[in-house]
Automatic annotation (TrEMBL):
Keyword Hydrolase: yes
Stated name of the protein: Peptidase A1 domain-containing protein
Matches recorded under Pfam families: Asp
Organism: Rotaria socialis
Family: Belongs to the peptidase A1 family.
One annotated GO molecular function: aspartic-type endopeptidase activity
Domain Peptidase A1, first and last residues per copy: 1-279
Amino acid sequence: MNKYDATLSSTYIANGKNFLVGYGDGSFVEGIFSIDTVTINGIEIKNQTFVECNSINSTSSLLSDGVLGLSYPDLTFDNGTTILISMWNRGLISKLLFSIYLNPDKNSSYESGLIFGDIDSSKYTGSITYVPVVIKIYWEFLMDRVYANSTVINSSLYAIIDTTTTFILGPTQSIDTLNIALGGTYDSSAEMYKVDCIARSLSSFSNVTFIIGGKAFTLTPLQYILTFNNGVNNYLCYTIFVPLNIYDSRGNLYWTLGTYFLYRFYSIFDFANNQVGLATSISYNWTKSFDASPFNNLSKTTQVTTQSIASTTSSSTQSIASTTSSSTQSIASTTSSSTQTTIVTSMGIQMNTFLRHTLNDIVLLVGLFLIKTV
């Protein structure tokens, strides 16, 4: 881990204000506000206020150099300015948005990435579906409905996208209904729903579909069932749909679409137009290989996955025009493990990222030492 040392910086400015924030899991972060130049992929953001942490009490290890908050300004402390807004105010990006690609395949040449100020069209297929932000604190929007088999959930459909939440969380009543439709039983020790992947065939599990902005975003069984091998052919299987009642600032119960959702769908967060965009990710079809089959009939895996992606991409009801505009600057980014170079236009700034998964904060953890410059 790289640590910030103000004594080594000639551009450091002391702020003097203290910072302390606690989280629902009992962890906390304590520090002081500081001002310095922040550099991302060779782009300098001067006089950026941030928190210099001197005490972190967490139940899990921190896997990056810091935390980069990307929610609306109303969520900032002391009316601070986020990195994205600072870049926009200084003319460093030509679009007031950021986009995220998460790849579950660690062996892929495409690394997960965050782009400030642009959208990488090489990381998704089909069109982008946009929905308006309904509460400008988190990136909160309304889904149309969620369904599995003949079970339809059409209430309590407020939702946010959260890069630091691993699972898909939802109101207890809705998640209970969904998991029961999938044949799940609640495991109180794990606080998750278990499904029988030994006696049942893979084809007996239905897809789970989220209708957002009139378009179907579908997860197949291999995308929402987690398998754990406790011994030779001794499998435990859980769904990623976890019951948790969380309320927004207006008292609405809402869903949290975490990284298991983002592995399949490219996401765009558009400040200028107050909207969230989703498109089918190029990593949609990736599934983890099994050493042995936990399902009664794994031979139908390819069939299920192929059918679901065809259904998802063909059900779009909205088409969005090109997001690329004229620009005086183009930034190229390439990764060490890939022979392909990604060209990002419209003064976009890209970095490679990895994430720490928690259930508490709407932030993106950025491994600064992974930033590539060209």
